[in-house]
Structure formats: C-alpha cells, structure tokens
C-alpha cells in the first residue's frame, strides 16, 4: 500500500477532490533532478478545502477514476 502527500487543487463534488502530487526523480543520463506533477481524483470523507496538504493512500477502485482515499489532513 503506497502513501503520497499532495495538495488539494479542486473540490469537485461532495465526496471527490482533485489532488496534485509532485514527485522528483533523477534523470538516468544527465543526473538532473526532474519534477513531475500528477493530478489524481481521490475519495474524500473528511471534507477538505482547496489548499489543504493531505496524505492519500491507495485502495481498491471506488469509481472509474478514483483509486485513492484521503487518510488525513496534514
């Protein structure tokens, strides 16, 4: 089970939020740090607001696009 930290960028409906995940990795050839951003739809039972930093966890598919849930607001 994988956990990620992200920032809420949109609250779509009552139980869905969009979270931006930022990850960095080193390029294999040029040895430069590269930042990659992803936007994921997550299941929200806590009632988060835009700008909240959240911890999300992987879970079984909840809908067509939601594969993660919000565990806590940090």
Brief summary:
With 74 residues, the chain is an all-beta fold. It has strands spanning 3-11, 16-26, 33-43, 53-58, 68-73.
Features:
OB fold (Dihydrolipoamide Acetyltransferase, E2P); single chain; mainly beta; 74 residues; elongated
The strands making up the biggest β-sheet line up spatially as 1-2-3-5-4
Q: The biggest beta sheet, please?
A: 5 strands, mixed, barrel
Q: What's the CATH class label?
A: Mainly Beta
Overall shape: it is elongated
How many DSSP E strands? 5
Task: Compute the number of structural domains.
Answer: 1
In the CATH hierarchy, what is the architecture at level 2?
Answer: Beta Barrel
Instruction: State the helicity in percent bands.
Output: under 10%
Q: Quaternary arrangement of the chains shown?
A: single chain
SSE order, one letter for each helix or strand = EEEEE
> How far is the N terminus from the C terminus?
19 Å
Low-confidence blocks of residues: none
Name given to the CATH homologous superfamily: Nucleic acid-binding proteins
- Total number of helices: 0
Radius of gyration: 13 Å
Can you give the mean pLDDT?
95
* DSSP strand content: over 45%
Question: Within the CATH hierarchy, at the fold level, what is the topology?
Answer: OB fold (Dihydrolipoamide Acetyltransferase, E2P)
């Amino acid at each position: 089970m994988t956990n990620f930290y992200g920032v809420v960028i949109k609250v779509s409906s009552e139980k869905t939020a969009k979270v931006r995940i930022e990850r960095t990795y080193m390029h294999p050839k040029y040895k430069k740090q590269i930042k990659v951003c992803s936007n994921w739809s997550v299941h929200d039972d806590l009632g988060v607001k835009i700008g909240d930093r959240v911890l999300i966890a992987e879970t079984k598919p909840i809908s067509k696009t939601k594969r993660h849930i919000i565990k806590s607001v940090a």
